[in-house]
Write a structure and sequence with these properties.
Layout (H helix, E strand, L loop, with lengths): L3 E6 L17 E2 L2 E2 H10 L4 E7 L2 H11 L9 H31 L6 H23 L11 H11 L10 H12 L7
Parallel strand pairs: 1-4
Antiparallel strand pairs: 2-3
Helix pairs in contact: 3-4, 4-5, 4-6
């Protein structure tokens, strides 16, 4: 039974390595890191699909490197969705950094903390929902020990994050009062 899907993030740009070439295209042992990674996963006996998530600027190079073969990543709607999720995650990370910097400077937690908590809770739900969507029908009947079960578990568990540490509605009220300066609701 082929019921395993692999998502390979290939979004590096090489800055941390001090290179102009993105890490996924660097050669190790005569083979690009991305090609070696895909080759490794292609050997899995239950492999159904491999999705390589690369920025649009590197998509052509990745396709050339990996050769022909349609993937879920060829779906422009999926690419747009993943890009939006990535942009949201990056924005939340920047807000998190700002909150920490403000707290260090003032000794007081930033009011943006509510926006960060709300954003991460809802982003986590969206990412988990995408995982279930990619599973398709396999999300319905799964072996409790399978990777599919883990994806479904993560999806169901993601709903708790909008309740824990203040519900999303409470966070919205705090944002309205503390950040936007709106009066308290009754």
């Amino acid at each position: 039974m082929r019921d395993v899907a692999v998502l390979i993030p290939a979004g590096g740009v090489g800055t941390r390595l001090g290179r102009r070439t993105p890490k996924q295209f660097l050669s190790v042992g005569g083979e690009a890191i991305l090609a070696a990674t895909v080759r490794h996963f292609r050997r899995h006996p239950r492999l159904a699909a491999i999705v390589v998530a690369a920025p649009a600027a590197h998509a052509v190079r990745a396709r050339r490197l990996l050769g022909p073969g349609g993937t879920a990543w060829d779906d422009p709607v999926l690419r747009e969705h993943v890009g939006r999720l990535e942009a949201n995650a990056e924005g939340l990370w920047r807000m998190t950094q700002r909150c920490v910097t403000e707290a260090e400077a003032t000794g007081v937690p930033s009011p943006l903390g509510s926006a960060v908590k709300l954003g991460y809770s809802e982003l986590g739900q969206e990412i988990a929902a995408l995982g279930v969507r990619l599973l398709g029908r396999r999300a319905i009947g799964w072996d409790p020990e399978s990777e599919d079960a883990r994806v479904v578990h993560d999806y169901l568990w993601s709903f708790q994050s909008t309740i824990a540490a203040g519900t999303s509605q409470i966070q919205r009220n705090l944002i309205a009062e503390r950040i936007l300066g709106m009066p308290k609701g009754r």
